Amino acid sequence: MQQRLEREWELTIGPDTVRLFIEKANAISAAIKDDYADGNEHEVELDGDTRDNHHHDGLAEEKADNLMAEELSELINDLNVDEAAELIALMWIGRGDYDASEWAEALAEARQRGNKRTAKYLLGMPMLGDWLEEGLEAVGA
Questions:
Q1: Which superkingdom, per the lineage (predicted)?
Q2: Radius of gyration in angstroms for the set of CA atoms belonging to the chain, rounded to a whole number
Q3: How many other C-beta atoms are found inside a 10 Å radius of the C-beta of residue 88?
Q4: How many C-beta neighbours within 10 Å does residue 74 have?
Q5: Cβ–Cβ under 8 Å, residues 135 and 92
Q6: Can you give the residue range of the structural domain that contains 74?
Q7: What pTM was estimated for this model as a whole?
Q8: Structural domain tally of the chain?
Q9: What is the pLDDT of residues 58-114, one digit of tens each?
């Protein structure tokens, strides 16, 4: 856990907005973890012993998971350039790529990346919610 930073700046993105993203990312991550918790949820053997370990209504759950990810993606895509860069910088700090005291460097690097693929980049991270939460805590938001 990183030491909290006494900030001399304010976030453009509201901490409550980041917390909403954290909730949605954690829900998406939990759905994936629950789906594969025992390692053979989808295993079906047709030779010999017929087993069907399909413990969920796959299409309904898959559609709900996709809608949740799609909603989070749209929310991220609606961010302005500064907010998107801050979201990436928070994730990097939470992940440990940067220390909270290196906020300016993390933010500058995130701004250079642009935000055309921000949602895809962030949603590709299974621990996104955890890292955003740790990043918020580290910067004292």
A1: Bacteria
A2: 18
A3: 23
A4: 10
A5: yes
A6: 15-139
A7: 0.72
A8: 1
A9: 544 555 557 788 999 999 999 999 999 999 999 999 999 999 999 999 999 999 987
